[in-house]
Amino acid sequence: MLVERATVQATEAGAAASWPFTLAPVRTLTSEGLNFTKPVTFLVGENGSGKSTIIEAIAEGFGLDAHGGRAGRKYGNDREKTPLGEAIGLEYTRAGSRMQTGPRSKKRGFFLRAETAFGLLNFVSGMSGYWDENLGEMSHGEGFLTVLETMFAEPGLYLMDEPEAALSFTSCLRLIALMHRLGEIGAQVICATHSPILASTPGAEIIEVGEHGMERVAWEDLELTAHWRRYMSDPDFYLRHLIGETGPA
Ligand SMILES: Nc1ncnc2c1ncn2[C@@H]1O[C@H](COP(=O)(O)OP(=O)(O)O)[C@@H](O)[C@H]1O
Ligand SMILES: [Mg+2]
Fold it and tell me: Probe ligand 1: pick from 22, 53, 84, max atoms within 8 Å of CB?
């Protein structure tokens, strides 16, 4: 593990009583901080709850570009930090501190945003040190996993924002294995997801983000899990509210 805790400086947050400090999970971050106790952490919650805002700020706090990319490299335009990225403070483990204070080339990490993943894949495909396989001959999902498996091979901070978008069921299982392995080699993963599959990664901690702020919840007790379980066993339970009675008359 590399990052033990995230906090927000009260003075900076207090001075900014506007977005994103008004979001419930950011208020929790400001008042209580967020402890990372497991090498793999998931943020789950409804659209608009603040997952991306928090992941981006952690990326900026660690020194990863918020556009998504490898530590120490910039993709796209130089952008100012986000307001939360400016205010966030990260507390490091011994290994994390060594990485932060060492030479820039020793800083390992990657931030994979759902929206930019495809462009990023094309951009880095010709660069050495990434991977040798020809991504042009692969599907989006295959290329995505190849990149992940190649790049995510050493201790570093790996941030992902809804990586499941490109992945089939089987590919999600491969990603679970990969994230789990990363946890075991001293890396750290923080991942926003809507996928109950990814969130079931053994040994991971799940933080539910929403109007209540941030709360640790067991996989079995997640609303996400309950909805999928109910939907898979009886789609009509949901659909009849949306499109009236379904099925044979
Ligand atoms: N630059 C911004 N300025 C103001 N509000 C924003 C900005 N970016 C996102 N938001 C709002 O902040 C909330 C949280 O967004 P986001 O972190 O993207 O949620 P999630 O990733 O959980 O879907 C949303 O209501 C969104 O509209
Ligand atoms: Mg998001």
Answer: 53
User: DSSP for 75-119?
Assistant: -SS--PPPHHHHHEEEEE-HHHHHHHHS-GGG--EEEEETTTHHH
Consecutive 10-residue runs of the chain (249 residues): their mean pLDDT?
A: 92 72 94 97 96 94 72 58 92 93 77 65 52 58 71 83 85 88 93 97 97 97 96 94 71
What's the CATH fold of domain 3-217?
Rossmann fold (3.40.50)
Instruction: Give the start-end residues of each E strand in the chain.
Output: 3-8, 34-35, 40-44, 69-70, 88-92, 109-113, 157-161, 188-192, 205-210, 213-216
Distance 184 CA to ligand 1 centre (A): 32
Q: Alpha-carbon distance 152 to 157, whole Å?
A: 9
Write down the domain spans for the chain.
3-217
CA 249 to CA 245: how far, in whole Å? 9
Q: Which atom of ligand 1 is nearest to the CA of 56?
A: 17
Task: Respond yes or no on whether the N-terminal peptide bond of residue 20 is cis (omega within 30° of 0).
Answer: yes
- Which of 186, 158, 129 lies closest to 175, judged by CA? 158
Are 57 and 84 in contact, with CB atoms under 8 Å apart?
A: yes
Q: How far apart are CA 56 and CA 7, in angstroms?
A: 14
Q: Enumerate residues 6+ apart whose C-beta is below 8 A from 113.
A: 52, 67, 68, 161
From the CB of 146, is ligand 1 less than 6 Å away?
no
